[in-house]
Amino acid sequence: MKKVLSMIFATSAAAIGLFFAGSAYASANTVVTVKSGDTVWGISQQYNSSVKAIESANNLKDANVIVVGQKLSIPSANSSSNTQGSAHAATATTTQQTQSYSQPAQQTTTQSSQASQASTTTATSGSVAQQAAQLMEQKTGVSASTWMAISYRESRNDPAAQNPSSTAHGLYQSLYTTSNDWREQVNDAARIYQSQGMGAWALN
CA 102, 104, 109: angle at the middle one, nearest 5? Predict the structure, then answer.
């Protein structure tokens, strides 16, 4: 009976030893010699790896093309997953760095654009009345200086001027438009001139 128990314990110990030895061996890269009937997928299942990991470790262009006697390095599933995790982490870090570097550039571009628009508006606002007067001269034949005098008297050359006691609006204080666009105000004033002449502005 003691001999039987001793043999059972010895066999179990040997099996456990082989199991742990196989696990330790599989955790590192294993070199396998391809036998007849072997496939990369079958080898990957046998050694707890993956087809992609084997392809990468052996620079295989086609996992379906292996030959008998070929030596293949088989990375373990743990090592391949760690490698993939590191790759994902590196990709995420690179993406975050790219975003952090690109955002200030976008903000700078936006600020420059806003500054440019502001300077353009300032430069144009001082000559709006003059441009309007010149366009009125073309449309009516009345001198630009006369239209400058009218716009100054009526609105102080402000296209957004609003008469508090009536609906008169704009450079020429028209009753028919509420737009702040001086071009629309010119078109409106030209229509008034065609129908009423200079009498619309108390000038005859």
Answer: 95
Please, which residues have CB within 8 angstroms of residue 41's CB and are 6 or more apart in sequence? 51, 63
Across 89-122, b (16+ Cβ under 10 Å) vs e yields eeeeeeeeeeeeeeeeeeeeeeeeeeeeeeeeee
Say what angle helices 128-140 and 144-155 make with each other, to 10 degrees: 130
E strands in 24-123: 30-33, 71-74
For the segment 102-158, what is each residue's pLDDT rounded down to a tens digit?
Answer: 444 444 444 545 544 443 333 334 589 999 999 999 999 999 999 999 999 999 999
pLDDT at 92 over 60: no
Q: Which residue in 69, 70, 80 sits closest to 26, CA to CA?
A: 80
| CA–CA separation, 203 and 85 (whole Å) | 84
C-alpha to C-alpha distances, 143 to 21, 73, 78, 194, nearest whole angstrom: 105, 93, 89, 15
* Cα torsion through 157, 163, 166, 169, rounded to 10: 40
Beta-bridge mates of residue 73: 31
Q: Which helix (H) or strand (E) holds 84?
A: helix 77-125
